[in-house]
Every structure is written in C-alpha cells, then in structure tokens.
Amino acid sequence: MGQRVWCSPWTGWTVKMLRPWNDGSLRLVTKVGAELLITDDADAFKKVADNQGLMHQVCKSHVQRNTDALIANLKPLAAADSDGSLAAIGVSPEQAVADLERLGELIRSRQPEQEDELGMMYGRYMAAAPPRENEQASIAYRVRSLMLDRWNLWRRLTRYRTWKGPEGERIDGTNNHAERAIGWWVKERYRTMRGYKKAANAVNVSRLLAWCGNHLNSGGVDLEALVA
After folding, report:
1. Cα 60–62–64 angle (5° rounding)?
2. Of 204, 169, 212, which Cα lies nearest the Cα of 3?
3. Hey, which bits of the chain come out as E strands?
C-alpha cells in the first residue's frame, strides 16, 4: 500500500489521443488498487481521472505558474478597461484588479475552504458575454474564464491538504516524482541515443540505462557482468 506508480503520456495530448493510454492505465490502476492520480494541469488528465473514478491532484506548481502569467497579462488590461466590458457588467477596474490580486494570493494559500470565496469572485463576472464568432474575447470575459477555471479546479488543487493514504501517507501537491522519472527514463535515455548510426545500438544503450535505473535504490548494478 502507498506505492507510487507513474505513467508518462506525451505532452499536449487530447482526451481522444489519450484513450489508448487511458485504457492501459486503467488496467494498471485496477491491478495496483490506485485511488489517487497526480498530474500536471492539462485538461485531458481531468477527464481521465473522472473516467477512472480516481481522486485527482493537479500539480500546484504548474497551476501557480500558469495563474501568475495570466494575472500578469490581465491586470493592466483590467485596469484600463479599454473595451468597456467591465463597466458593462458593473465591475470597476479597481475591483477587477483587486480580484486578480486576490486570486494570486489564493493560488498560493490553497485552502479547501476558500472555494466559496472563489465562487463569489466568479459571480461578479458571470454576466460577461462570450465572444461571437470571429470576435476576440472581452477583458471581462477573460477574467470570468480565469475565475471559473480556478474555481472548478479548486478541489483538485487542494486535494493534498486532506488526502491521507491507508498507512498515513501524504502527498505534497506536486507531480515532482513523475517529472523526475520522466527526466531519467525519457530525456536522459533519449540523449544517449543521438548520433547512433545503427538502430540496434541505440536500443541497446537505452535498455542498458533502464537496467541501471532499475537498481538505483538497491546499491546499483554489478557492471562486471557487462565485461565478463
């Protein structure tokens, strides 16, 4: 119990493209009795978690970086309200800037009970009209979309605050374990394959690294077997 299992689909895949991976991971989930899926904040993974009936934690670091970037982009636009969309729904530029700054604070504190506050903030922008075909989204609608997305994400973002494994295991709210595994099992193995003129040599070196990696937690491998 409490064992971590990582799966690494390619970055940027959609729900449809993830379906074969989803089917394979479902068999793995069933076999090991997994109950919690930890991923980055890609929307496709939310569907995978829901389809498999798993609790879901999205990486707090990914969400924070993405939110900070969106807030930095939206704050000067909200302060100017150049398209008048905030005024049209009765929200002052000062209020919008304050809400964006508060969102930045909430993304850092990540307390489960703050979900209601996020819902109230979203409510101020609910009346913002979506863009028509071939139109750019208004400033108010962009703020609305950000607030709604983070409100809907909140339980997945704060799952680590309350989740506890059957033997008292806890998680830190990031997918760092998976990122490190990807770094070793994918990126580092790929680098060693560059420049090989024979496909067999590239495959052999990749397998050698995998074999070495499987012994990282047991004192390493006995390399004498390679030169015997």
Report:
1. 65
2. 169
3. 36-39, 55-58
Here the tokens at position 25 are 């991971």
Note the pLDDT of residue 1. Answer: 40
Q: What spatial distance separates the first Cα and last Cα of the chain, rounded to whole Å?
A: 39
d(CA 119, CA 151): 6
The CA distance from 119 to 121, in Å, is 5
**Amino acid identity at 202:** A
* Interatomic CA distance for residues 18 and 47, integer angstroms: 10
Tell me which H or E stretch contains 202: helix 199-213
Segment 203-217, tens digit of pLDDT: 777 777 777 777 777
pTM recorded for the entire structure: 0.72
Residue with tokens 């209601």: 116
**Per-residue pLDDT at 10:** 46
pLDDT digits (tens, 9 = 90+) for 135-192: 999 999 999 999 999 999 999 999 999 999 888 888 898 877 666 666 655 555 555 5
Burial grade of 194 (CB within 10 A; 0-12, 13-18, 19 or more): exposed
**137 and 145 in contact (C-beta within 8 Å)?**
yes
